């Protein structure tokens, strides 16, 4: 709590560029739209946005940057300032699938003529998991799950809930219902038996996030939860990236920073966009293993893996650019550890140890842009 209350450095006079004034009273604030559907989403026709990017800001190279929507005050303004003042697109994946995921995306992709992945993902808990209906009490009125996190509830907690319900009347008193529902919402618990709640299994999270079943299989369960909790929601990202299909019928060359378990690549693959080259930068052993095994099973393009973004120097980027003739897409969501609300101890914003890796994304993107502009690629 101390950390999040700390006064943050204020930056004055940032160019407004493409960013319409969302709230004239405070240029640091970036109010989240309600409903959080970004510039447009399938099924939400009403408030589609048009935007004009300056010639300098449009691709190629195209770029796509992601992070948690609810960052500490002022952080999205700062992210935007570092990414050509382009306005973030805030989307809660709840509007597309059965689990919430509030994320901000800054990109220079066209936003017209997007198309969703088909078939559309299950939109409610019961559409995703019809077999749990049988155990679902009528007083649990959830239709969607909350954001999938990196860790799950302990057996101690689910046992305690079961004991409380077994010793209550049916339906339980309002106070017990409230207690149980608070925990169910906090931990995304589902009803798997009479009076019995449990966390989602990794393969259920894979389904909700748009990954193929067993995508994360082969590493420990804790690692599976961790990497799934950090990943993109594939249908959401695919909707934004869908415009690339028309532009690159022969495939794309991708610089993938903080690849994780490959949410961006799975999205491109599901869109039918061939990845000619992916330079994947990812430090986590488990995530690397998961991504590599998916790649080997599904892809024919060239994969080059780099561990630490810090070791991807500008010289190395330059040599990849000459080797492959440039990049079509620079994609990545840098670690949110110091931005996300669930981190009470080190929520120190972009300057925090992990979240500062954002500046490596900026460094590398700027280098790619200027090198490609210099070579007129
Ligand atoms: N978009 C990804 C997840 C990104 S989470 C997906 O769809 O799965 C951020 C990722 O950055 C994590 O996987 C983390 O392991 C990785 N990371 C953290 N520090 C890093 C570093 N120094 N270099 C490269 N990757 C790093």
From TrEMBL:
Family: Belongs to the class I-like SAM-binding methyltransferase superfamily. C5-methyltransferase family.
Catalytic center residues: 336
PROSITE patterns, alphabetized: SAM_MT_C5, SAM_MT_DRM
Keyword Methyltransferase: yes
Entry annotated with the keyword Isomerase: no
Chain intervals for the UniProt region annotation (Disordered): 1-35
One Gene Ontology cellular component: nucleus
GO molecular function, one term: DNA (cytosine-5-)-methyltransferase activity
Gene3D superfamilies reported for this sequence: Vaccinia Virus protein VP39
Domain (SAM-dependent MTase DRM-type): residue spans on this chain: 49-375
Pfam families (alphabetical): DNA_methylase (PF00145)
SUPFAM superfamilies: S-adenosyl-L-methionine-dependent methyltransferases
GO biological process, one term: methylation
Protein's recorded name: DNA (cytosine-5-)-methyltransferase
Amino acid composition bias (Basic residues), ranges on this chain: 1-11
Localization: Nucleus
């Amino acid at each position: 709590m101390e950390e999040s209350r700390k006064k943050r450095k204020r930056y004055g006079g940032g160019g407004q560029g493409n960013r319409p004034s969302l709230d004239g009273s405070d240029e640091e604030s970036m109010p989240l739209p309600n409903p959080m559907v970004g510039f447009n989403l399938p099924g939400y026709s009403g408030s589609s946005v048009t935007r004009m990017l300056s010639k300098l800001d449009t691709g190629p190279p195209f770029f796509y940057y992601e992070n948690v929507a609810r960052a500490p005050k002022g952080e999205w303004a700062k992210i935007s300032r570092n990414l050509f003042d382009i306005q973030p697109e805030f989307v809660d994946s709840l509007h597309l699938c059965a689990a919430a995921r509030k994320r901000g995306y800054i990109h220079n992709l066209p936003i017209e003529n997007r198309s969703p992945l088909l078939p559309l993902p299950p939109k409610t808990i019961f559409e995703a998991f019809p077999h749990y209906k049988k155990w679902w009490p009528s007083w649990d009125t959830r239709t969607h799950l909350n954001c999938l996190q990196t860790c799950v509830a302990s057996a101690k907690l689910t046992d305690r809930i079961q004991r409380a319900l077994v010793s209550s009347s049916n339906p339980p008193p309002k106070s017990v219902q409230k207690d149980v529902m608070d925990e169910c919402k906090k931990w995304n618990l589902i009803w798997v038996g009479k009076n019995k709640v449990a966390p989602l299994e990794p393969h259920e999270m894979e389904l909700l996030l748009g990954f193929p079943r067993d995508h994360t299989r082969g590493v420990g369960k804790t690692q599976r939860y961790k990497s799934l909790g950090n990943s993109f929601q594939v249908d959401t990202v695919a909707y934004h990236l869908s415009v690339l299909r028309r532009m690159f019928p022969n495939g794309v060359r991708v610089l993938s920073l903080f690849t994780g378990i490959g949410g961006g690549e799975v999205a491109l693959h599901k869109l039918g966009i061939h990845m000619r080259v992916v330079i994947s930068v990812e430090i986590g052993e488990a995530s690397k293993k998961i991504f590599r095994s998916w790649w080997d099973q599904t892809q024919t393009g060239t994969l080059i893996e780099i561990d630490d973004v810090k070791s991807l120097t500008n010289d190395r980027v330059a040599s990849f650019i000459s080797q492959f003739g440039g990049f079509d897409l620079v994609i990545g969501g840098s670690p949110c550890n110091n931005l996300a609300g669930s981190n009470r101890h080190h929520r120190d914003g972009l300057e925090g140890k992990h979240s500062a890796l954002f500046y490596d994304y900026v460094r590398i993107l700027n280098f790619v842009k200027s090198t490609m502009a210099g070579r007129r690629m």
